[in-house]
Amino acid sequence: MGLKSRIYLIDDDAAVRDALIIFLEIYGSSVDAFVSSEAFLGDANETNNGVLVLDIRLPGMSGIELQTELRKRNIDIPVIFITGHGDEEIRASVTQEGIDFIEKPIDHEALLKCIEAALIHGVKRGSAE
């Protein structure tokens, strides 16, 4: 199974980020990785035809705050949240909006399925429209 897609990955944990880059590139994705929401925002207007894999807890702007900011800027990109802190309240909040949520350690098969679904369903999955 090949994922010919662009993945925008934001995670402050270098080990997680590096492992996911290698894994996703093996499956044919192009990966742009960022250490923070703020770093991603510098390139956010250039995002299209891809999927954002986003850690919920980041230093500075959290993943949820970034998603809110992207909506304000009318940047529509499917989001898959990842977290090492499986808070049920956060899970309920994001999954209620149709956004995928995966806990660390990442189940690679589950991540691939979420990315494929996001690419098929496109931007409207997680939007508030």
Description:
It is a single chain. The protein is built from five helices and five strands, in the order βαβαβαβαβα. The model is unreliable at 123-129 (pLDDT under 50). Strand 3 (50-55), helix 3 and strand 4 (79-83) form a beta-alpha-beta unit. The chain is 40% helix and 19% strand. A five-stranded parallel beta sheet has the order 2-1-3-4-5, with helices on both faces. The longest helix is centred in the last third of the chain and has 14 residues, at 108-121. By secondary structure, the protein is of the alpha/beta class.
Keywords:
single chain, 129 residues, alpha/beta, five-stranded parallel β-sheet, 5 helices, 5 strands, 40% helix
**Could you report the average pLDDT, rounded to the nearest whole number?**
85
Q: What is the β-strand count?
A: 5
Largest sheet: 5 strands, parallel
Order of helices and strands: EHEHEHEHEH
**How much is the radius of gyration in Å?**
13 Å
How much of the polypeptide forms β-strand, as a percent range?
15-25%
Percent of residues in helices: 25-40%
Strand order of the largest sheet: 2-1-3-4-5
Alpha-beta classification = alpha/beta
State the oligomer. single chain
